[in-house]
Amino acid sequence: MSPQRAVILLSGGLDSATVLALAVRRFDVYALTVNYGQRHHLELDSARAIAAHYSTRISPRGGLMEHREIAMDLFGGSALMSPHPLPHHPSTNTPAIPCTYVPARNTILLSLALGWAEVLGAKAIFIGANAVDYSGYPDCRPEFIEAYQQVVRLGTKAGVETNTAPVIHAPLIDLPKAAIILMGQSMHVDYSLTTSCYDPTKEGACGVCDACRIRLEGFSRAGIKDPVHYRSEKR
Amino acid sequence: MSPQRAVILLSGGLDSATVLALAVRRFDVYALTVNYGQRHHLELDSARAIAAHYSTRISPRGGLMEHREIAMDLFGGSALMSPHPLPHHPSTNTPAIPCTYVPARNTILLSLALGWAEVLGAKAIFIGANAVDYSGYPDCRPEFIEAYQQVVRLGTKAGVETNTAPVIHAPLIDLPKAAIILMGQSMHVDYSLTTSCYDPTKEGACGVCDACRIRLEGFSRAGIKDPVHYRSEKR
């Protein structure tokens, strides 16, 4: 009997790379990367590199079957078009999106994963949400994931007809970054392929943004050198 | 004090046109149309025509502020790209999507509406979901909407910080089509602008698909002539 299918949200960051390593041990995995405009192109390159890395490791117990990308500039640009802008009441008081927060991000990402999961008949959806490092994000908390699971149960054919709705797995949700890194290391995750920095360039990660800071602290606490290059380091 | 903001999912069909007429009586409305590949281009034209119709009716009590479109071919074509298809295990046993069912459709649509609602600080999201005519769709039932409301409460800044998450309004959820039409007529909805047919052409609606059949039966029970042209009718 071949393994069950799972859809994973693969961003190209450290967390989702670790979750992918977990998922391929037990499932036939379909990885979904959503380019929603806020993310740097280098992060997409990372997602592709991670997917390519796992595409060579198919086993009877599971593996990465396919990697898909959706391009989607949410409320920020090209994918959201306004062919008939209405001339009245211009919305001048629309608040700016905070630079690291995407409104309803995980709700949207999980919905897209759910759509693909229904098509595939997948029994699991994996997401690298983490409540410890991003406690300010409401959609990274266990209670959000539980509420979303109920939507999946009630809003899908599989859930309603046969009580076999996909199960949402957020295996990192309450782990500190160092524990995630140690877990990933035990599964030989190649963290050199991942991108966490909010402002990466070809010369490396900035080393000072929130994402770099959390990442570097995680590697430090884990007692492991971060294999990613930082711009402040000599090559 | 200006009215509160609401986001509405506007498909171009009869139901969402009726919901729009309800919403503009009380809210500053932002209409979102998602072209997810399955929909005929003429339905998008209808959404645009309905939006244009309401853009001239701004009042102190509310009105249509803006109409946006998102193009998004979910799991069917151009927006979903696969730049790195993995050669192993081709997914030959992927079941086909039923022709009128889009996996996780309302979950995805509500997520996109929620994203915009958060940006706008909107207090309401309107959806024309209807459990009576589409009882086979799990995501058109009141219990689905309730579960989704819980996700909105727990997954948004407004919900977590100030208990002011957008409220999901599905005012048609338990109404038969004839009641929807009579309600719309009382609000002077121009149903000639709407498209329900799964296979409309410039010569008119087919008159025989499920959507046409349900629509025609609704108008018949309401004792009103459907203003839309059907291909079988003489001009």
Characterise the protein shown here.
In chain A, strands 3-2-1-5-6 form a five-stranded parallel sheet, sandwiched between helices. Residues 76-99 of chain A have low confidence and may be disordered. Helices cover 35% and strands 13% of the residues of chain A. Chain A contains seven helices and six strands. Chain A has a single domain (5-80, 97-191), classed as 3-Layer(aba) Sandwich (Rossmann fold). In chain A, α2 links the parallel β2 (28-35) and β3. Chain A has helices at 14-23, 41-54, 105-120, 142-155, 157-162, 177-186, 210-222; strands spanning 5-9, 28-35, 63-71, 80-81, 124-126, 167-169. β3 (63-71) of chain A pairs antiparallel with β4 (80-81) of chain B.
List keywords for this structure.
235 residues; alpha/beta; five-stranded parallel sheet; 7 helices; 13% strand; globular
Topology diagram in text:
The structure is a homodimer of 235-residue chains.
Chain A: E1 5-9, H1 14-23, E2 28-35, H2 41-54, E3 63-71, E4 80-81, H3 105-120, E5 124-126, H4 142-155, H5 157-162, E6 167-169, H6 177-186, H7 210-222
Parallel strand pairs in A: 1-2, 1-5, 2-3, 5-6
Helix pairs in contact in A: 1-6, 6-7
Concise overview:
Two copies of one chain form a homodimer. The first copy, chain A, has seven helices and six strands, in the order βαβαββαβααβαα. Mean pLDDT of chain A is 84; it is low at 76-99.
